[in-house]
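Why run this: before we spend reagent on co-expression, it is cheaper to look at a predicted model of the complex and decide which construct boundaries make sense. The entries below are exactly what would go into the expression plan.
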Amino acid sequence: MVEASAPDLSVRLGSLSLPYPTLMGSGCYGTGEEFAPFVDLRNVGAVVLKSVTRKPRMGNPTPRLVHTPAGLLNAIGLQNPGIDWYLEREVAKFAARPCTVIGSVAGFSVDDYAYVCERLAARDEIAAVEINISCPNVASEGETFACSPNLTAQVVAAARATTAKPLIVKLSPNVTDIAAIAREAEAAGADALAVINTVRGMAIDVDRWQPRLGNVTGGLSGPAIRPIAVLAVYEVARAVRIPIVGQGGIETLGDALEFFLAGASAISIGTANFTDPRTPERILEGLREYLADRNLRSLSEIVGKANLGFASAHQYEGDEG
Amino acid sequence: MLDLPARVHAALVTDRREPAPGVFVIGFDAPELVRDTRPGQYLMAIPPSGERCATALGVYEAEGKRASILFFVTGKRTRELSELHPGDRLDLVGPLGNGFDLRDDPRDVAIVAGGVGVASVLLPAQRLARSGARVRFYYGARTARLLVDADRFADAGCELLLSTDDGTAGHYGFITDLLARTARQLPDAILACGPTPMLRAVGRVAGELGVRAQLSLEETFACGVGGCWGCVVPVARSSAQAPAFPQLDGESDAVNARICKEGPVFWADELRW
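The model came back. Tokens follow.
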């Protein structure tokens, strides 16, 4: 345990309290169990599970992954066993995790989201639900929700009506005005926003004259997208009062700090776990030192400090970050 | 599946050689990895620069305190690993995956390797030869100088059968043609690692010969520990390696298995690729 004077790294996402501001990104961390041999999961703020849909999905054909110069292109295609099987055979296992477990829901209609969210959120093993309206890797409509303010509002309102548990809405960077979408999600009842999902991209095999992904297009993650993500957090933080989980290419303490300073209350680590599974613990330790070195008592003291618009957006809400 | 003692190791590089241009063998001290690795398992080498992602590589040698990796430099990540020198630190995660199933104690084995696929078959070759089995080692590469370390297999007691795509050594053509032609004295088991087209051909030849083959598959990995579902291959639902998954309407009997987790070694006759 850390000494009593150690900086407070806890964070609140709506009614959800986490000991640490480090979430493990959906689709990147399995169910947490896969990484347990290499990481003490008690040092992880929360694991966000892979998205589940109404019906089972086999996912996309391979190749599903392409390494690119500063990132990783993926097109997994929401492979999952569907909500019935998931509730029956998977969810009970999550009770044994030594960290908070956040579910994730994806869908192809407003009704899909509401249906799956209601059933998933009803389970005690699931502390909160991420609404993935921004998967770029499914043939139709996967991302259209996150690209439309109106559909975003409809999905979030429908999910909101099904549960009192915290809802985190995961936004897409593949939009013209992410702040406008963020406002709709907040107004429709989101407790927090995950900013951002992957950036659409593709890679081509120049010997075979073919796209390199089985799905042709994919979502780019890793440091290549970090500046895009930092800007998105910066813009969203000026537009809403609910907390933001910043994500996109975070590998080091310095990367994480950029997101906090832009206005994120928490961060999510995804692709960096594929480089070194010790990344989350390293960033957490780095955060403690960074704050202690500056005699800061709490992480909240740096949130939004590089974002002048952040303070004005939050001024009517007292100290809540 | 066995409960694997995978962990993060901080290894010290002990040796480095370049047996052919662009092919490297990096040796390192990792006694626990040596102790825990079964033939055909792999590791994820964490890039010394910390720049993504870790690289999946077969455990090539494992004896005493020392293990090694063998690889072709194909890009930035493998170039960085090739620049490791004695005294450098190499962090890695392993051992990972299932490895070859040698529980049937085969007495006459054909081991097939294509190119740097050789990295995953030295350990089973040594193990089997040491146990007194006859091991025929079918080794194919593009050209003679890329038949690296063939002598290691001869030293282990294997019979060598070589091929090159350009005829500069051994049979002029594919190693699988050689396998089909010379396996009249049927082996009890076939183990193979190499490029996907070669593995498909090994699976076909094995089917024709009526011998069960185990194939160590190659695919792009991200996490290497089963967390991302990026490296899947369809396997028969009846396979012991098939993850539990609901039946889809109108789908075949195949389900996706993770090459990194349920594999990388699969029974050829259970693949539905």
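The domain at 7-96 of chain B is CATH 2.40.30.10 (Elongation Factor Tu (Ef-tu); domain 3). The interface with chain A takes residues 4, 6-8, 46-47, 50-54, 75-77, 91, 93, 219-233, 244-246, 248, 251, 255-256, 261 of chain B (CB under 8 Å). Bring this page to Monday's planning discussion.
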